[in-house]
Amino acid sequence: MNQEPILATHGLTRRFGGLVAVNEVDFDVKPHEIHAILGPNGAGKSTLINLLSGEIPPSAGEVRYRGKPIQGKSVRQIARMGIGRSHQKTNIFPRLNCLQNCQLAARIHMGGVFSSWRSRQQAREVNERALEVLETCQLVHRAYTPAADMSYGEQRQLQIAMVLATAPSLMLLDEPMAGMGREETAQVTELLASLTDRYTLVLIEHDMDSVFRLADRITVMVDGCVLESGSTDQIRRSEKVRDVYLGRHHEEVMA
Amino acid sequence: MLHSYPKRVYFIMLALTAIVATFPLWGASVFGGQSDFILEKLTLMLILALFAMSLDLLVGIVGLVSLGHALFFGVGAYTLALASPDFSPASLWWMLPLVMVVSAVAALVVGVLVIRTKGIFFIMTTLAFGQMLFYLVSTSPFTGGTDGVFIMFRPSLAVGETTLLNLDDPRTFFYFCLGVLVAGYLFLRWLTRSYYGQVLDGIHDNEHRMQALGYATSGYKLIAFVIAGVMAAIAGMLAAMQYGFANPAQLGWHTSGEVLMMLILGGMGTIFGPILGAFTYEILLFVFEHLTTHWPILMGLTIIVAVLVLPRGIAGLIIAPPGKAELLKTSLLRRLAKGGRKPRTDAHPHQAVMPKGRAES
To answer: Which residues does chain A have within 8 Å of residue B215's beta carbon, measured at their own beta carbons?
Structure first.
């Protein structure tokens, strides 16, 4: 795996007042890999994702996407460049139905609203793409259900479908399985596993089984710094990680 | 689907339209000498319905509560008043496009400045712009100050020498306003169900998510702001034609507040609701004004009760009428009439809880 990274950060730092949420992080994502970010609560994982998607500007350091710096660009511009993200909190359009949610996501990346108006061909393509991602996420039977009327797990799946509909070259998923039951978690894990041949993923997740099952590489963060970064096996063997993160985690489980 | 309603909505709206449209036929036999006055009132209601409907695009569809929408109503009225020649009627063929262009420019300028603000800040900035224009026209000599400007001749609609519609005739003007209202309704209905309307729904539900998907939401909101402004200006122009003058009161914040109340009363976000709201508001106003000089108290109470009892307005009542069981539960009178006995439980309580027709909406 000596490919050029699709996304790389150098000395990326974000301060909130006196708190350094993300501290000099060097991080990269290679094409077609799942790069998981692990870390205890408050480690700076979500802040890192927010820096990558442009939701907050960095205090220092830089983010390069396909070799070009992207800091200073708006959320919208970064989204249009092909970085799609899902949020930790469910973030959908509750009054619209499942299909419309995905159509909105697809349309802006397939020529925009007004060309859909002009060209039937494009409107059809948007529709096909929306149905395709619903099928990938096993939501076709819910196509005409308002998003607000679906179960929590289905809403989380819809979130992933919406990111897929934008055909991103890089997907940032912030805890896609948060709050899901065991069965739903397994389902989404399978879904994400099936995406690797076509997509590149950055994944924040607390579910250890899923992370070790899915990830090609793992970066472990503690207190805003990268503690360790490497392949799944390297992380599993790492003493440091065991002490700081897995150790504490297992103690919690024992208690 | 979000903007499709049960068939009964269209049935009721068509029936009401038919009743209003045939008023010139039956008005005289029911109201006698009063019918001319009522025809004038109805014309005004049609105009206000168009005005309320244009605000619904902003408030109900996009979710931007504006307290300065009368600004555009006033721009329409003053454009007509100031551009009309003194000794001959203007032609509607160029007056209407002129009103649309002037109001579009005004909405674009105001919109660019206010569209990035949200919630209370949007309310305050739209209010501020409305009041700026209000004080400008009520103190400037060329707009006639607080007296306003009189319009000596109603614009005419003619081709060459032949008059297409004699708008000076109250009946013809009534039908003309009805036609504009229906056209405005069909336009907004088409717009809200279009791809662009879907984007507005998305912004209403979750603007942040729309940005994260890659939408430049400010641009889409600005387009809606301009469309709403132009429609309000057309309503303002019609109102000025009806009154025969343009007056600062037409663009003050009182007017903005009134039209917002019509919208809330009728049901936001439905497009047809504001039409019902405008008619209901004006009829209530007419009744209360005749009952007492303290009519604002009655009006205020009515609005408060309406908001409490009908959170989705009159439109909500039609879209999802309360089931029998619901009425039984809330109707204290009926319970008293039964002498304190427990009301019989419905055979299918679960069906009754779900108001009929909700599934269709």
So the answer is: 76, 108
Which amino acid does the sequence have at A101? N
User: Same domain for A43 and A105?
Assistant: no
Based on the fold, state whether residues A114 and A20 are members of the same structural domain: no
Give the minimum alpha-carbon distance from B115 to chain A in angstroms, rounded to a whole number: 17
B58 has a pLDDT exceeding 90 = yes
Average pLDDT over residues A122-135: 93
The answer to whether B81 and B140 are in contact (CB under 8 A) is no
Q: For B282-333, how does the pLDDT look when each residue is reduced to its tens digit (9 = 90+)?
A: 999 999 999 988 988 999 999 899 888 888 899 999 998 887 666 655 555 5
Task: Looking at the structure, tell me whether residues A93 and A185 fall in a common domain.
Answer: yes
Residues 6+ apart with CB under 8 A from B54: B69, B72, B184, B227, B228, B229, B231, B232, B235
Same-domain check for residues A98 and A23: no
Report how far residue A96's alpha carbon sits from residue A102's, in angstroms, rounded to the nearest whole number. Answer: 10
pLDDT digits (tens, 9 = 90+) for B107-149: 999 999 999 898 899 999 999 999 999 999 999 888 888 888 8
Q: What is the pTM of this model?
A: 0.87
CA distances from B62 to A109, B59, B98, B197, B358 (A): 22, 6, 27, 9, 23
**Residue A86 belongs to a domain:** yes
User: Domain count of chain A?
Assistant: 2
Q: Using CB atoms, pick whichever of B195, B206, B214 lies closest to residue A76.
A: B214
Residue ranges covered by each domain of chain B: 7-340
Judging by beta carbons within 10 Å of its beta carbon (0-12, 13-18, 19+), is residue A118 exposed, middle or buried?
exposed
Residues of chain B with pLDDT > 90: what percent?
67
Q: Comparing B232-236, B273-277, B319-323, which segment has the lowest mean pLDDT?
A: B319-323
CA distance B78 to B233: 9
- Whether residues A124 and A142 share a domain: the answer is yes
Asked if A56 reaches chain B (Cβ–Cβ under 8 Å), the answer is: no
> Is A23 within 8 Å of chain B by CB?
no
Its domain, for residue A62, covers 1-28+35-81
Correct CATH for B7-340 of 1.10.287, 1.10.3470, 2.120.10, 3.90.1720:
1.10.3470
**CA–CA dist A109, A122 (Å, integer):** 11
Answer yes or no: are the C-beta atoms of B137 and B74 closer than 8 Å.
yes
**How far is B205 from chain A, CA to nearest CA, in Å?**
5
Q: From CA B266, how far away is CA A25, in angstroms rounded? A: 55
A155 touches chain B (CB under 8 A): no
Q: Measured between alpha carbons, how far is residue A46 from residues A24, A50, A126 in Å? A: 15, 6, 31
Torsion sign, CA atoms B6, B7, B12, B18:
positive
Tell me: do A152 and A169 sit in the same domain: yes
